[in-house]
């Protein structure tokens, strides 16, 4: 009787918050008998928690090559989740909540073979607080989609003007040395996804994944905006010669890349001379940290690239 009362209270709270589907789920449990698997295994996460259901992932006792392919639609996808920032969060806590993530921020579903191989490229410098919270949300977000993925932080060394676009080009080239990725996501460090139905996979055409952001009132700031989070296959990226290398400081490169898709006059004259085929840089270090691969690079400055001797 006590268990039934507790369940009724939970149902009432869920209904009040609009979770009618979950209420139906609990009613189904009562009709069929038994206990929800999530509760049975100790997954007491709150509704809307990005880590909900991940405790259900169990590595089966079989060889990796014998695992079945993951289903076309992941059963772990749960829709919108709450984005709230845990106070005093540490990287160690993020590691503990993601036990299947391997060194370098690499992950494969332990219970099935994913058909998607996605690399996340994040340009970075002195944004550790943003990075920590992005990793807190991004790792479970990607795991719920049952992706084979890796997270690359491309850190610009020195104090020269930041160049997001060139760092993305470096990230592409360095990530492709590690694995034959089928999809590349170019991701700002301060953007956190809010709905795991926004799949981090590539389509037939280049994809803009951050088409609705809270800072823009969940609308595009202008029609040709392609910034924030975008996705391209390696073939698409090389076909357009990557991002331009000559945009120092934030902004500008997003408009240029949108123009490359439209093949307007200025881009027709310049895009073949500024991109992957003209990029110069030097890798200073490559570290396989628990939650990501950190690649520190010297990309020069507005005055050019002068490698250290």
User: Can you tell me the residue ranges where pLDDT is under 50 for at least 5 consecutive residues?
Assistant: 9-46
How are helices and strands ordered from N to C? HHHHEEHEHEEEHHHEE
Question: What is the domain total for the residues?
Answer: 1
Number of strands: 8
Strand coverage percent = 5-15%
CATH architecture: Alpha-Beta Complex
**What is the C-alpha radius of gyration, as a whole number of Å?**
22 Å
Biggest pleated sheet: 8 strands, mixed
Helicity, in percent? Answer: 25-40%
The overall pLDDT, averaged over residues, is 81
**What does the overall shape look like?**
globular
Distance between the termini: 77 Å
Domain Galactosyltransferase N-terminal: 70-203
Domain Galactosyltransferase C-terminal: 208-261
Pathway: Protein modification; protein glycosylation
Pfam family, one: Glyco_transf_7N
